[in-house]
Structure prediction request, 254 residues.
Amino acid sequence: MKKKTAIASIASIAALLAVAAAPALADDGNRYNKERHYHSEISAAQAFREMNKGKWTLRGQVDAAAPVLVDVRRLREYAAGHPVVAYNVPYPHIVGSDGDADYLPQDPASFYWEVFDIVEGDTERLVMLLCRTGSRSVDAGNLLSDPAAHGINGPAFSNVRNIWEGFVGQYKYAYSGGDITLNESGAPIRLDLDNDGEIATTDTADVYQETTDANPDKDGWRNFQNLPWTPNVRWYLAYQNNPALYWEWMTPVE
Prediction:
């Protein structure tokens, strides 16, 4: 009896040690801790490297197997600047926001089939999604990867990545060991990424007055990472191949 008790105790201790040694449950990778059905996250820098693997000309993509970058931001956001070879298929907003008089939402099925056409039905192709800070692109990635959940009768995309920093990005914070450092008020300490001696507390407009994207202390594609971007809307990358859709709401910055 004592031998059995000892064996049981050893087994119990081993089980407790296994639980203690198990890694803590982690968030699912995207910076907004949203549920994920798509393949995984990808950094803006790695997405840029992937795009450079494809073959492009001034008239568009040549290599049918090349990765695809889809910017899901609104028309006005895309027009104010986007990665050089990014398609624009807005989701979930085409124009404005819910509650605006001119609000135009995106139909989930329309979004899915637009992207399906871009990849010519190759749902195993690498598709990288970009929005302002990495939230809308999560929702778009989930839609492509689980279309049935949205009532769409189409195959699931199997290789969708979310560019988690987004085009504009968010602030980075100081750390002490593995924890974010807090100031005397208990707020996280933001990093002065461009080392100019101050934190840019607001985003500013530098292309069109309606879109504030510039902030050197945010970690997005066009800001601290300083990856190639352009305000030029090319017809073969434009939403529905129609650049005329973009200019109705634009006031250039002087």
